[in-house]
Amino acid sequence: MFKQITYLAKFSLLLFLLNGCSNHNEAMKVLPNELSIADDCRNPNKQFEMDCYDLISYKNSFAQLRLGLYAQYKGNFQEALQRYNVAKEKGNFYANSLIADLYNNGFGVNKDEDKMIDLLEDVKNVDPVAAFKLSFYYLSKDKVKDALELLTYAAENGVKDAQNQLAILYSNGQYIEPDLEKSSYWNTQHEEGTENFINKIYGI
Question: Which residue windows are transmembrane per the record (predicted)?
Answer without folding.
Answer: none
